[in-house]
Amino acid sequence: MEYFIQQLLNGLTLGSIYGLVAIGYTMVYGIIGMINFAHGDIFMLGGFAALIAFLVLTSFIAGVPVALALLIMMVVAMLVTSLWNWTIERVAYRPLRGSFRLAPLITAIGMSIVLSNFIQVTQGPRNKPIPPLINDVYHFGDVTVSLKQLVIVVVTAVLLTVFWYIVNKTPLGRAQRATEQDRKMAALLGVDVDRTISITFIMGAALAAVAGTMYLMYYGVASFADGFIPGVKAFTAAVLGGIGSLPGAVLGGLLIGLIESLWSAYFSIAYKDVATFAILAFVLIFKPTGILGRPEVEKV
Amino acid sequence: MTPGNTTMTRDTILKVEHLSMRFGGLMAINDLSLEAKRGEITALIGPNGAGKTTVFNCITGFYKPTMGMITLTQKDGDQFLLERLSDFEITKKAKVARTFQNIRLFSGLTVLENLLVAQHNKLMKASGYTIMGLLGLGSYKREADGAIELARQWLEKADLIDRADDPAGDLPYGAQRRLEIARAMCTGPELLCLDEPAAGLNPKESLALNTLLNSIRDETGTSILLIEHDMSVVMEISDHVVVLEYGQKISDGTPDHVKNDPKVIAAYLGVDDDELEEVMHEELDGGSH
Amino acid sequence: MPNTNSSANETAPGVMAQAVREGLFAGVLAFGMFLLYVGIETYQNIDNALVWRTRWGLLAIFVLVAAVGRFLIVGFVKPRLDRRKLSKAKAGIPEVSDDKGFFHKNFLKLSMLALVLYPPIVVSLYGVQGSLKFVDNFGIQILIYVMLAWGLNVVVGLAGLLDLGYVAFYAVGAYSYALLSDTFGLSFWLLLPLAGILAAFWGIILGFPVLRLRGDYLAIVTLAFGEIIRLVLMNWSDVTGGTAGISGIAKASIFGIWSFDVGADNNFAKVFGLPMSSAYYKIFLFYVILALCLITAYVTIKLRSMPIGRAWEALREDEIACRSLGIDTVKTKLTAFAIGAMFGGFAGSFFAARQGFVSPESFVFLESAVILAIVVLGGMGSLTGIAIAAVVMIGGTELLREMEFLKHVFGPDFTPELYRMLLFGLAMVAVMLFKPRGFVGSREPTAFLKERKAVSGSFTKEGHG
Ligand SMILES: Nc1ncnc2c1ncn2[C@@H]1O[C@H](COP(=O)(O)OP(=O)(O)OP(=O)(O)O)[C@@H](O)[C@H]1O
Ligand SMILES: [Mg+2]
After folding, report:
1. What is the percentage of chain A residues whose pLDDT exceeds 70?
2. Cβ–Cβ under 8 Å, residues C148 and C368
3. Touching C: B residues 211-250, CB under 8 Å
4. Are residues B203 and B66 in the same domain?
5. Which of B26, B101, B229 for mutating ligand 1's site (highest number of atoms within 8 Å of CB)?
6. CA of B270 to nearest chain A CA: how many angstroms apart?
7. Which of the residues A38, B272, C120, C317 has the least number of beta carbons within 10 Å of its own beta carbon?
8. Do C48 and C150 lie in a common domain?
9. ipTM of predicted complex
């Protein structure tokens, strides 16, 4: 039982990270109907920004409090990735909006290749380790909870609340939802669609950056190739939860995290990703719109 | 396939009994029964949202009805229960073809290719499910030429022969409507279901359409089920009219009978006989189609 | 914020002011984007601790390029383009001209001739050993991608089904050959068709449950299947050799008559009294893959004008209309999937015979992405366009390997190979931005009454699946 709870906790931690990234996928898909393949690499960029910020920070100020350091890393990562995602949308996706459906997908795949190789070229192909930021662990019986895990879960929860507030209670969120439902109509009613889409990309990037920072803190390494697998898993999470649905993305993320850690614990670590993908395939085959997705009826 | 009840006469091609279709809380069709006679044009009319297209979708298998039985009897007596067949089987086996309210052409294929796609099943068989055709064996070559010949005939009837090699998406609206009908006819149907074929046509195009429909009925003997908003078309060419409102049948009979049915008049604004046609024109032309 | 609505009628000073503004903005933006990644370099010192140093010079170059580039585009390139478009519109000259030159008309024959003559020409120019690089890296490498892309074209370009896991079938082909030739000692010529059939079989197995899905759901499930197959190959060590893969795979022979094994009595070079070289094998393989490509092209062209091929294209245009015409769309999709997979399987077994080694490394998602990119960049459905895209994208990146002279420019540490994929990605983005429908956007009709007219890309659809 303790073992199970332990795995549940690990899964929850991992799932929080996936959930944060999944929101970016789902928001972009919801608003412009495009799989933003480069989003996983935005997450990776976020991790690197946090890493570099950490290095620079610690070499100038020796005994900086961990909480402050984390906060700074997060903010820097959010700023930098927001700039990137804004620019990418502006340069590579916007000109293709409304054109051939596969064109933006291919551009996004191209962008993903560009981003990971850009980091490989500028920062080198090797894994980048950082010293552990937080070491504290707490024991509850046989269950071990590390402070990092708590931080991740708490930060995720706080961010999601803020995010939920923005999407549901502010004019910006209303503009987003309107654009999502009917872009032309929203434009006619005075919503600045371009700006709304840009902000969506920025919000997605910011969440991914936080996820990247958390991922770096949790595992203690960053690599240029870290965009793909977490990215695909986060996307899987978004689809699992029902793409286009924000709560779905979070739910999907948590599920993927849980599946992954429970499968590793009880079956085999080697096949944990197989399990994730297999479950995705099953869910899609039997409930193609995901768990919380709205069913799409095609009117004939 | 499955014999329906034996009381059905040879002249009834389609018999819809107690058909209901529910979307969530909405009863789009409620216990509807109707019949269409072989070789006739049966019109299905009714105000916007009455459920006409939904009836078509149930007949052609695109929606699975919540309840009801739809029996199709072919010329040679074979009967099919359409609600048990999937959409493509209804065309393939039961020989029911249809057009769509929002035209659905293969816009990137040429006009001719559109008509060849419609002869898919016949050509598939002739090409030995591709394998023989790939090897150049069998009668595929002859059948393929035959298919082009059939397409040419329909292009002539639909007055599209000059545009045969242009992409379907490049045709003007009225021509696209006629092409869609010609394409449906190329499947060799016994029952043709047309969903508002005259909607949005200018008078000249309407005329061309009428010519096409008349030639279909007179030359091929195909029975037609027609949804139409334009009352002049309905009254002029249909043999039998069924009126729907809120998913229920409110009248059924000859055009004259329906025109004078007080229930229909009430449904269409409840005005006097003579004013009816006029008002209906205004109402419906102003509608969203 | 940059403003894209600059019109040609604007006065020059206005344009200039805007260009300066946007140039500055781009510079600031670039500074923000590149400050951390370019301005700072992280590396591990002797103690293995991660440390950093600055690269201000490089950062300055990035910022300058962005600023000046944007300035030039807004100030000069855009106005000129706008003006040209305007004058063209006024003169009423159609954007595409219809007349075809000799080269254009005989493109197919000429390129066939060039391909057949390619190995002898290279051998006569660079000698037997010197030809290796050209035949292998350029010839075979490009042709493998041409074949893969033509195979995927059946699925994506014709049937309009988005498959992001195509590389799985390539892997099935490669491992089928590797395992069956290892265990049963069967020959390449027997296993080649078998690998194709096995891949097609897998295509049907994987396709059956998922082809009901539409659009992006199909894409993501195919991606998942691709990854599952790769992960299984990676972890099922008893059979597949795990990450280490399978090595020492038997070479193909010239129909069993001559062999390319160094020790064999009927070794090709020995029999003909030629000096030993691996180049003969490569030249032989070049012709094999060329033949495979031609078969793929022939079958695709033939199928397109048959009912099944027409049904694929109709499916891409409108699935519901297809069903209303009595076409069994599930079966139609499955055949497209199976035939695409079969070509992937052929290519896979060829790949294994060429490499003599297979490992899961070769079948990552990136490969699927590259193949899909070639299909879309070439222009969906167009064999010529796809071949051109393969030459440009694969040839271009291979060329980069050869750019030794760049070392003289950028110093001896410069490894152009590192930039291969970076440039590949940039090229993907650039081509899509300038030609969203790919190099060849139009479509050749499969039947005609009076004359064959190409269908402009603006009418063709890209499918939902
Ligand atoms: N797939 C669906 N899901 C939910 N509701 C549907 C669906 N299809 C039709 N409806 C509803 O069923 C009702 C009947 O629609 P239908 O399209 O059959 O009307 P119609 O008589 O063809 O109208 P029109 O003249 O406007 O074409 C409408 O209220 C419509 O909104
Ligand atoms: Mg309707």
Report:
1. 98
2. no
3. none
4. yes
5. B26
6. 31
7. B272
8. no
9. 0.89
Q: Which helix (H) or strand (E) holds C119?
A: helix C107-133
Check pLDDT > 90 for residue B23.
Answer: no
In a domain, C442, yes or no: no
Query: Environment class of residue A187 by beta-carbon count within 10 Å: exposed (0-12), middle (13-18) or buried (19+)?
Result: middle
Domain containing residue B75: CATH number: 3.40.50.300
Q: Residue whose CA is closest, atom 12 of ligand 1? A: B28
In this structure, the answer to whether residues B138 and B4 fall within a common structural domain is no
How far is the alpha carbon of A299 from chain B, nearest alpha carbon, in Å?
A: 9
Query: Are C164 and C220 a contacting pair, CB within 8 Å?
Result: yes
Identify whether residues C251 and C155 lie together within a single domain. yes
Residue B229: burial class (beta carbons within 10 Å; 0-12, 13-18, 19+): buried
Report the distance separating Cα C268 and Cα C270, nearest Å. 6
The model's pLDDT over C119-130, given as tens digits with 9 standing for 90+, comes to: 777 777 777 676
Ligand whose nearest atom lies closest to the CA of B99? 2
- Residue-wise pLDDT for B210-235, tens only, equals 888 888 888 888 888 889 876 777 77
Task: Write out the two tokens for B14.
Answer: 């389609």
The CA distance from C160 to C162, in Å, is 6
Q: Which two tokens mark B29?
A: 């069709």
Which one, of A292, A226, A206, lies nearest residue A23 by Cα?
A: A206
Residue nearest to atom 18 of ligand 1 (CA): B51
Q: Which residues contact C61 (CB under 8 A, 6 or more apart)?
A: none
pLDDT, tens digit (0-9, with 9 covering 90-100), for C141-193: 899 999 999 999 999 989 888 888 999 999 999 999 988 887 887 788 888 89
Nearest atom of ligand 1 to the alpha carbon of B247: 14
Query: Separation of B277 CA from ligand 2 center, angstroms?
Result: 20
Distance between CA atoms of C449 and B154, rounded to whole angstroms? 13
Token match 């478009």: residue?
A: C85
Same domain, yes or no: C299 and C190: yes
Nearest CA to ligand 1 atom 26: B48
Ligand 1 binding residues, C-beta < 6 A:
A 297, 299; B 23, 26, 28, 46, 48-54, 101
Compute the distance from residue B27 Cα to the ligand 1 centre, in Å: 10
Atom 14 (ligand 1) nearest CA: B51
Mean pLDDT of chain C: 82
Looking at the structure of chain B, the number of domains it has is 2
- Name the CA radius of gyration of chain C, rounded: 26
Q: Which residue of B has its CA nearest to A298?
A: B62
Q: Do C50 and A96 touch (CB under 8 A)?
A: no
